[in-house]
Amino acid sequence: MLKALKEIGLFKAIRFLLFEIVLLLFKLIILPQARVVYLRMLGANIGKDVIIHDVNFFNCYRKGFKGLSMGDNSFIGNDCLFDLADSITLERNVTLSERVSIITHLNVGYRDHPLQIKFPSVAKGVVINENVFVGVNATILPGVTVKSGSFIAASSLVNKDVEENTLVGGVPAAIIRKI
C-alpha cells in the first residue's frame, strides 16, 4: 500500500477514496432516471431522455465525471464498464448493449514495472458519434472514434477508428460491410 501511495501521492489517494464513496452511492440508485440526475450533479454532461442502467465506473479520481458526456436519447445497458481515466463522449442516439467496456487508458503497473519500457502508460479519450449501436460484450480501446451510423457487432474488440456507416466485428474488429 505504501508503494501505491508513493506512486499516486496523498491528494490522489484521498480523491480515490472520495470517489469510491460517490460510486457506492451511485450503486444504491435503482432508477435509471435518478442515475442521470446524480451523474449530472457530479459534473457529467448528459442530454435529455437518456437511460442509464447498472453501469460500472473506474478511475473516476483521474478525469472525473466532468469527462463524461452523453447526448440526447442515449441508452446504456446493464454491466457496462466506463474507464474515466480520460474522457468518454457519446453523442445523441448512441446505444450501448449489455457489458460494453469503454477503456481510456493502458497502464501495466507501477512506474518501475519492467513492461513500462515496452508499454508506457497512455490515456486517450473515446468518442462515439451519433446514431451508433454497440453490441453485447464489445470493448472499445483508448483513442478510438466510432463515427456516425456505425454498428459494432457483439464481442468485438475495437482498437482503431470506425468509419461512418460501417458494420464492424471480430477480434480485432474489422469491416464486415458498409451500411
Structure described in brief:
20% of the residues lie in helices and 27% in strands.
Can you walk through the features of this model?
- The model has no long low-confidence stretch (mean pLDDT 96).
- The radius of gyration is 17 Å and the shape is globular.
- The protein contains 3 helices and 19 strands.
- It has 179 residues and is an alpha/beta fold.
- A hairpin with a 4-residue loop joins strand 18 and strand 19.
- It has helices at residues 2-8, 10-28, 32-41; strands at residues 45-46, 51-52, 56-58, 68-70, 75-76, 81-83, 88-90, 95-96, 101-102, 105-106, 122-123, 126-128, 133-134, 139-140, 145-146, 151-152, 157-158, 166-169, 174-178.
- The longest helix is centred in the N-terminal third of the chain and has 19 residues, at 10-28.
- It is 20% helix and 27% strand.
- The chain has a single domain (2-178), classed as UDP N-Acetylglucosamine Acyltransferase, domain 1 (3 Solenoid), CATH 2.160.10.
- The strands form 4 sheets. The protein has a 7-stranded mixed sheet with strand order 2-5-8-13-16-18-19. It has a 5-stranded parallel sheet with strand order 1-4-7-12-15, with helices on one face. It has a 5-stranded parallel sheet with strand order 3-6-9-14-17, with no helix packed on it.
DSSP E strands, number = 19
Cross-sheet strand order for the largest sheet? 2-5-8-13-16-18-19
| CATH architecture term | 3 Solenoid
Content of β-strand: 25-35%
Largest sheet: 7 strands, mixed
Number of helices: 3
Q: What structural class is derived from the secondary structure elements?
A: alpha/beta
